[in-house]
Design goal:
Number of strands: 2
Strand content: under 5%
């Protein structure tokens, strides 16, 4: 792991320092989003505000991976809370329908950490090849980078195979965390790449959601540019970041993410377990409130 982290700086530049004020913003916007999801499905303002939360958490996962002094403990801690959260999360929908294979975002972030590790190892092997001209290192590097691609598409493949399976934010989350990791010192490049990611993801969603999870229909839709464009442009969905591009509102989170480096937030300090605890606790409370309202 020490060697792997040599690919990226162990301690990030000041622009990527821990910022608990940014975390607090993520907690608040996530709570607003989940309240809207559970109780006010027709009030889109709740969901719009909530689009800020996910990219901020993705940013902190990339940051946490690079800064942690013990990756194993970090992964074990995340795994524990992912398992704790999964039971209430399996009921986390307005109808309270039980779905144990709709996996919460902590499982997604665990997969993202594995992705970053494999990516770093692949880049390290290729750098060794450049230095020593050892083609075995090049082969391993290429294999590991192919594995990166396979990890990214795995949640989407499983969603076709297993009915009801869904890894929260799936492919979008994995690539987003990877981009924050790769371009952590290049703010402009990171911003441009993330905007492009959201644009491409909207295109992908059109092909996916109009395929009824049929692989043949999905590929047909994916290369039917005229059909995809008609869906993207329907009711100004693209220009207003609605419909298939609703998640694209997450690009506005780049303002607080990259802007926070210029704000002194040292007065706000959160215990590292606050986020882990807040996630399952607020979900459980919202489910209990929904259950009480349903009974009455």
């Amino acid at each position: 792991m020490v060697e792997t982290l040599g690919v990226q700086e162990k301690v990030l530049e000041k622009s990527a320092c821990r910022n608990d004020m940014l975390k607090l913003l993520a907690f608040v916007t996530m709570l607003v989003d989940h309240i809207g999801y559970m109780f006010f499905p027709n009030e889109m303002l709740f969901r719009i505000i909530g689009r800020l939360a996910f990219p901020i958490f993705a940013y902190h996962i990339a940051l946490g991976y690079s800064r942690t002094s013990n990756l194993k403990k970090y992964v074990l801690r995340l795994s524990l809370f992912a398992l704790i959260t999964q039971l209430p999360y399996s009921f986390f929908n307005p109808s309270l329908k039980f779905n144990p294979i709709h996996l919460n975002i902590l499982f997604t972030f665990l997969m993202a950490i594995g992705l970053l590790y494999v990516y770093d190892m692949g880049i390290l092997k290729i750098r060794h090849f450049i230095k020593d001209k050892n083609y075995v290192q090049l082969l391993w590097g290429m294999i590991l980078l192919v594995l990166v691609v396979l990890i990214i598409i795995l949640p989407e493949v499983l969603s076709f195979i297993l009915k009801g399976f869904y890894l929260e934010y799936g492919l979008l989350a994995l690539v987003l965390v990877l981009l924050f990791h790769v371009f952590h010192e290049k703010t402009v490049t990171a911003a441009i790449s993330i905007v492009l990611l959201y644009l491409l993801h909207g295109y992908y969603r059109v092909a996916l959601f109009n395929s009824a999870y049929s692989s043949s229909l999905f590929w047909s839709n994916l290369f039917n540019f005229k059909f995809v464009w008609s869906q993207l442009n329907f009711q100004n969905g693209l220009s207003q970041l609605q419909r298939y591009y609703f998640n694209g509102l997450g690009i506005f989170s780049l303002i607080p993410i990259f802007g926070s480096a210029h704000i002194d937030s040292r007065t706000i300090k959160l215990n590292k377990y606050v986020g882990y605890i807040f996630y399952p606790v607020h979900i459980t409370l919202l489910i209990l409130i929904a259950l009480i309202l349903k009974i009455h």
